[in-house]
Amino acid sequence: MELPFAESYKIKMVEPIRRSTREQREQWIKEANYNLFKLRSEYVFIDLLTDSGTGAMSDRQWSEMMLGDESYAGASSYFKMKDTIREILGFEYFLPAHQGRAAENVLFSALVKAGDVVPGNSHFDTTKGHIEFRKAKAIDCTIDEAFDTKIYHPFKGNIDLNKLEEMLQKHPKEKIPFIVVTITCNSSGGQPVSMENLKSVKQMAEKYGIFVVFDSARFAENAYFIKTREAGYENKSIREIVLEMFSYSDAMTMSSKKDAIVNMGGFSAMRSKELFDKASVFSIMFEGYITYGGMSGRDMNALAQGLREGTEFDYLETRIGQVAYLGQRLVDFGVPVQQPFGGHAIFVDAKRFLPQMPKEQFQAQSLAVELYLESGVRGVEIGAILADRDPETRENRFPALELLRLTIPRRVYTNNHMDYVATALANVYERRNTISTGLKIVNEAPIMRHFTVDLERV
C-alpha cells in the first residue's frame, strides 16, 4: 500500500483564532468602510489577505535570530546574507531593504526616469506604483492565455515575445530602462514563467541592449513549477534551477517576506558594480547604511536561513500542495478559479462568479466582502480597485482579470482550515444570484488606492 502524503514539518507552537457572528462581522466591515485591509486582525477567523510576512518561521530561523549582529556597519549578519545570496541566487552585489517595495524604490530610483516605459508580465501593484510615481509607464506583455481562467497553460506567467519585441521596436532603448519579469506572476494568478521564456526574454533584451530585472518574491515556487512542468528539468534540484533562472537576469528585487519566510525584509541584487554604487546612494537616503538597509541583524540571519529552507523541494511540495488542495476543493464545488492553480494562492474569477454585477461596482471586492460576512475569512481583491486610475485620464482601469485572491500563509494553516474556506465560498456561490449590487468608492488615495480606499454599498 502506498503511503499517503504528509507535511514536511511538525507543529511546535500554536496561536488561538476566534470565531465571530455574522452580526458582528456586518458591523466590523461597515466600520472598516468595506475595505478588508482596515479590519483588525482579531476580527478575522482565517486570514488569507496575503502571504507576505505571515508565514511561520522554523526553529532554525528563530535560532538564527538569537545570533543576529546588530552592528550599524559591517555586521556579520550582512555577510551571512551576502554569502547566501551569492550561493543560491548567483549575485555578487546586493543591498538589504526592509521589504520588497523598498528594494524597488532603491533600484528604480537608480534606473527609472520620467517618460520611460517598462515592459513586463502583469506588473504587480508596488512595481507599477513605483514606475508610475516616476511619471513612467508600465506596459503589460503577458501571453493572452493568462487572461482566460478556463484555459490550461502550464506557464501563464510567460511574456509574449511578439508583444515584447513590438514594444522594443516602438520605443528607443534610452526610454526602456529594463524589462521586468515577475516570478511567479502574481497578477495573473500566481502563475509561473518557464525557463524557456526566461531565456528567450534575456536573448531578446541583449539583442536590443536592455537590462532584465526579476521581481523575485516567489522565485522558489517558480522553480518548483519548472521542475514539475517543464521537460528537461524533472531531475534537476530546485537550487540548480534557481541558479539557471537568475543567470538570465541582470538585477533583481525581492520581498523576502514570501519565499524566504520572514516577517520583514527584502533586498535588491545586481551583477554590475556601477549599478550597485549608483543604487547605494538611494539605499543610504531611503533605507539605511548599505550593510543593514532598514533590517536588523537578526532579521538578516533569519532571511538567510529562510532562503535555504525555501529552496528545499520537500518544503515546496508541501506548501504548493496545500494551495492545490484548496483549489481542487473549490473546483469540486463548481467555483470558477484561475487554472492551473498558482503557487501561493487560489484566484477566484469574480467576473464568472458574479456576472450580473456591473464591473463599475467592483465584483472582486464585493465578493471578498461577501466571503468575510459568510465566514470571517479575509481575502483580497486583485482587480479594478488595485488597478487604480489611469494616471493621465484619471478614469478607472478595468483589467482583463477581476480576481479574489485567497493567499495561503506558509506553514500556518492545516487542510481543515482549507476545507472551511472552500465550504464558505461554496455557500456564497450557492446564493450568488441574490448578489446583484456591489460597492462604490467614496474616498481614495491618488496612487495605490486599494490599501486605504473607503467604500460603501451601492
Tell me what you see in this structure.
This protein is of the alpha/beta class and 458 residues long. It has two domains: 22-51 and 313-457, Alpha-Beta Complex (Aspartate Aminotransferase, domain 1); 59-309, Type I PLP-dependent aspartate aminotransferase-like (Major domain) (Aspartate Aminotransferase, domain 2, 3-Layer(aba) Sandwich). The chain contains 16 helices and 14 strands. The strands form five sheets. Strands 2-8-7-6-5 form a five-stranded mixed sheet, sandwiched between helices. Strand 5 (178-182), helix 7 (195-208) and strand 6 (211-215) form a beta-alpha-beta unit. Helix 2 (59-66) packs antiparallel against helix 11 and helix 4 packs parallel to helix 5 (125-133). The chain is globular. The model has no long low-confidence stretch (mean pLDDT 96).
Task: Break the fold down into its secondary structure elements and pairings.
Elements: H1 22-31, E1 46-47, H2 59-66, H3 76-88, E2 93-97, H4 100-111, E3 117-120, H5 125-133, E4 137-140, H6 161-170, E5 178-182, H7 195-208, E6 211-215, H8 219-229, H9 238-247, E7 251-255, E8 266-270, H10 273-286, H11 297-309, H12 313-332, E9 345-349, H13 350-353, H14 363-375, E10 377-378, E11 380-382, H15 384-387, E12 403-407, H16 415-430, E13 439-443, E14 454-457
Parallel strand pairs: 1-10, 3-4, 5-6, 6-7
Antiparallel strand pairs: 2-8, 7-8, 9-12, 11-12, 13-14
Short synopsis of the structure:
The protein has 16 helices and 14 strands. With 458 residues, it is α/β, with parallel strands linked by helices. It has 2 domains: 22-51 and 313-457, Alpha-Beta Complex (Aspartate Aminotransferase, domain 1), CATH 3.90.1150.10; 59-309, Aspartate Aminotransferase, domain 2, CATH 3.40.640.10.
